[in-house]
Amino acid sequence: MTDQQPTFLTQQRWTIIFALVIGLGPLTALTFGSKYADEETLARAEAGDRNYEAPGPFASYDPPKTVGSAADSTVLDITQDAALFSDFEQAVEQAGMLEVLKEDGPFTLFVPTNSAFDALPEEKRQALMQDQQALIDLVSNHVVRARLGITDLLQADQTESLSGKALQLSAPGAQLSVGGAEIVQSNLVAGNGIVHVIDRVIL
After folding, report:
1. Distance CA 178, CA 160 (A)
2. Are 102 and 112 in contact (CB under 8 A)?
3. Pairing assessment for the beta strands 193-198 and 107-112 based on DSSP bridges
4. Which of 80, 114, 129, 143 has the most CB atoms within 10 Å of its CB?
């Protein structure tokens, strides 16, 4: 009788321990899980936490690479496919610069919308459209002979247009501006360059 009692108590003790493990298992895992986590997983998590930077007003990213048929496209193909840029297309055509922007480049094109042209005084707009040299200067003001994604622009103070005009780059608020015009859409990629949409005409 005496020999059986310790055995019985031992069995009861293991039964209680087993019940506690089953009952408290999830809580224990939540509390001490990180202690037993894989060391490599923890190292990666800690490195990510140290290197994380909250996104600012610009979600800067590099433009995708052009592949397939897109690699044969030009910056003009992007603007010609949208009625939004018909005024700029007309300016390019009347300036005789269609072939220039179809060259290998690379080019960065800051293309103003039709609304940007509508914002010009009517007399100024008419005068521009009737003066080929003025149109050449206007179009050239919107072209840079380099491939500049939004990340490149954010890291620079200015860039130089095809006309030799210095285009100031700044980000005072929620938008990046170039030559006083805000970039409202960025990184439209073509085979010979990249297009950014702006809200004003750069004169």
Report:
1. 11
2. no
3. parallel
4. 143
* Element containing residue 181 per DSSP (H, E): strand 181-190
- Who contacts 87 (Cβ-Cβ below 8 Å, separation ≥6)? 112, 114, 117, 118
**Whether this model's pTM surpasses 0.90:** no
Distances (CA, A) of 127 to 30, 49, 131, 134, 165: 73, 57, 6, 9, 21
Q: Give the pLDDT of the chain (203 residues) as one tens digit per residue.
A: 445 444 444 455 444 444 444 444 443 433 333 333 345 444 443 443 333 333 333 444 455 554 445 567 899 998 886 789 999 999 999 999 999 999 988 999 999 999 999 999 999 999 998 999 999 999 999 999 999 999 999 999 999 999 999 999 998 766 899 999 999 999 999 999 999 999 999 99
On the question of a cis peptide bond just before residue 57, with omega within 30 degrees of 0, the verdict is no
Peptide bond before 112: cis, by omega within 30 degrees of 0? no
